[in-house]
Amino acid sequence: MRNEDRDRRRERRAVSPTSDSPPTSSAWRKSIAAQRRLRDLLAYALLALGFVWFIFPLLWVVLSSLKTFQDFNQIPLRFLPSELYLGNYPRAWNSVPFGRYFLNTTSIVALSVVGELLSASLVGYGFARLRFWGRDLLFMVLLSTMMLPFWVVIIPRFLLYKQIGWIGSWLPLIVPSYFANPVYVFLMRQFFMTLPPELDDAAKIDGCHELATFWRILLPLTKPVLATIAIFAFINVWTDFLKQVIYLSRESAYTVAIGLAFLRWQIAEGDPVPGLLMAATVFTSLPMIAVFFIGQKYMVRGIALTGRTGT
Q1: For 68, how many CA atoms within 13 A lie in the half-sphere containing its CB?
Q2: What span, in angstroms and rounded, lies between the C-alpha atoms of 65 and 69?
Q3: Contact 125/185 with Cβ under 8 angstroms?
Q4: Do 124 and 43 sit in the same domain of this protein?
Q5: What is the pLDDT of residues 47-57, one digit of tens each?
Q6: Residue 292 counted as domain residue
Q7: How far is it, in rounded angstroms, from Cα 264 to Cα 269?
Q8: How much is the pTM?
Q9: Percentages helix, strand, coil for the chain, rounded to the nearest 5?
Q10: What is the DSSP letter of 146?
Q11: Residues 6 or more apart from 248 whose CB is under 8 A from it?
């Protein structure tokens, strides 16, 4: 009798679903999967729209550098060139001595980047690792200098450089890089604070002094933030037109940014050929684009790690 009752219960379970397994579980999973696909599709659409929004100016400059003068005079304005005209590039290069300006800018950028890296790493190490009275107060004072706009200090700096005879040379553009930019010091300090203090103790046990600990142990670990600072410094110096046009007075010392301004003035005074300026903009921007893509991986990692707090 018990065996018959047991068989009947098994048949009932096979015919009707149990209350423990909801009948809508499959539909619920399909609904969740559909919502996730819709969310991913919306995210990719927004990313694609943002990519087009930011890449459009660069694309417009590149295509305009390949247009002829007749393409610019057509109404409505053509987006694509009627033919790939490469003559704007050699003509723009020869209109202004860009070869000399590239060498000048490269020299200024190289010396400035080295100064930014050395000064920011040393000062950042001091604020992160050394313990002395008033350290946090001095760091706050250093950060507060970022609130001073460039227009406030431009006249005192010009008068100072004029008195010591630096006007007309590269020194006003290079020497300040060796006095620690507050932004770069902040990045280096935050990165040094993420490194465990046991590294310093191990280095002291091995007989390293503070400078050896900084140079041999900790500095090689800061490649991501060093790459970030190098990229920022490179772009800032390469595109810094205002300081260069204020402090440089000799044509032999001019830079790429000033060369672009000269080309624009020549076009404004002579025959208007927009393709020349577009072509010059393209080949003067290539070094910045190349440096960014080369150090992109380290740059993203450096910015991400500087947001962490050390122990």
Answers
A1: 7
A2: 10
A3: no
A4: no
A5: 899 888 888 88
A6: yes
A7: 9
A8: 0.80
A9: 75, 0, 25
A10: G
A11: 168, 169, 170, 173, 254, 255, 258
| DSSP 8-state code for residue 307 | T
Three-state SS string over 47-94 comes to HHHHHHHHHHHHHHHHHHHCCCHHHHHCCCCCCCCCCCCCCHHHHHHH
Amino acid in position 260: L
In a domain, 240, yes or no: yes
Is the residue at 121 inside a domain?
yes
134-166 pLDDT, tens digit per residue, is 899 999 999 998 888 888 889 999 999 999 999
Say if residues 255 and 108 touch (Cβ distance below 8 Å).
yes
Amino acid at 228: T
Q: What is the pLDDT of residues 54-85, one digit of tens each?
A: 888 888 888 888 888 787 777 777 778 878 88
Do residues 58 and 106 share a domain? no
Give CA 195 to chain center in angstroms: 23
CATH of the domain at 132: 1.10.3720.10
